[in-house]
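Sharing a chain and its predicted structure for anyone who wants a worked example. Both blocks are below, sequence first, tokens second.
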Amino acid sequence: MRGRGRTGFLGQPRWFGTLFVVDLWERFSFYGMLAILYLYLVADPDEGGLGLPEADAAALSGLYMALVFMSALPGGWLADRVFGARRATLYGGLLITAGHALLAVPAVGWLYPGLGLVIAGSGLVKPGMAAMVGRMYEGRPERREAAFSLFYMSIQVSALIAPLVTGFLGETVHWHLGFGAAALGMIVGVVCYVAGWSGFGEVGARPERPTAPGELRRVLRRAGLLGGLPALAVVVGAVTGALPLQRVLMLVGLVVLTAPVLYFRALLRAPAVGPTERVRLRALAWMLSASSVFWLLFAQGPALLNLFARDEVDRTVGAFRVPASWFQSVQPLFLLVLSPLAAALWVRMGRRVGAPAKFAGGLLLGGGAFVVMALAATGATQGRVSPLWLVVVYLLLVCGELAVAPIGLSLAAEVAPPGFTGRLLGLFWLFAAVGAASGGQLARLADVVPDSVYYALLAVLGLLAGTGLTLASRPLHGRLATQAEAGARAPTRSKR
């Protein structure tokens, strides 16, 4: 089959429509919950919320984002070696549905199991669907790129619509109804997936590289001892109250921070990685470390910026009061509009502007966003401020994201040694997880300093990182260059 069936959805084969619907609803569940999770955590119990301290809620929200990023690593391994991409996607969809169903139950005890199921399911769905699309268009890269572009569009459409739906239901009716809307969406996605099962042919039906006899048992035993049992103990401690939430967040945050370091060391020690490739990988590590600063800034959006929208922004339009979570739809709207312009800009620039310089620009834009945010927080001391302040902040963050996320993924794929592309892409998301988790923990400062000072500190962090990367962009660009590029520059230098 491999994508040569009859077209029936956006000019793509019919099976594509099945995967597109699943991806759209999976992203709807993620962005919909992200829009209301923090507001639910800090809302007063009399209003149906948990009444958590703002710092703990921000840390928990950041760790949720981080663990969703990280879950694609074990999920991708299970899809490649155990389940096959098709079953991995199905099992992931069922786990996400079950997780949101638990979150829809108006009882405190279901929060952590529900979040855990959503995280585990996301880790299976994301790599599983990507692998199926790649296999369907094997040998036809131009069709595969077009298909992934449409998938990226589904992400932005979901991110745009989800906060409008879950935010309205959660803030104006009941928080758990907002979580339930995400569960209903995933049910639709899973039903469509099962209905279109026969259209996939043999693609994704079996693992691409099945585990050897006894290997799976060894891996599961090791994973259980090193990760499963400690994770279970943490969840039980959090649910029963035996382990304070602050300790739970610190333990999980420590795991998130150490995972990229251990993963990167393992990559460098791989026998297939040569000396030249190690130089490029070390340069990439500096780039990804800088990108984690951007994701730290980005993680403020669903947390403290949501709170700012709720408490400090004039949201009245006539007789209607705009839900604070609706501001989370501003970013995907800008992404839909600006992504084609950014793509055209990168093509026009060509290789004249390297990835380090683009990263630096993204960080400077992120720092600039929080300069604006500090000014808005200063104005809020005199009363509610215009929503345009937040609109400008999100515009600058989106411009920064377009200079960091796609460029970083492209660079990771370019630098990857043969056979290591998937692992390098996973490393990119591990550093994004570090940023998201660190951003949640850093939000604790907001409890001890004025909002304007906190946002100014974030601005300084982004601007310093951007400036440092600007100064280092030339040597980094040289170390990241391929051997062919280095050879092409050598004669030019010898003629001078």
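Comments welcome. Confidence is low (pLDDT under 50) at residues 1-5, 483-496.
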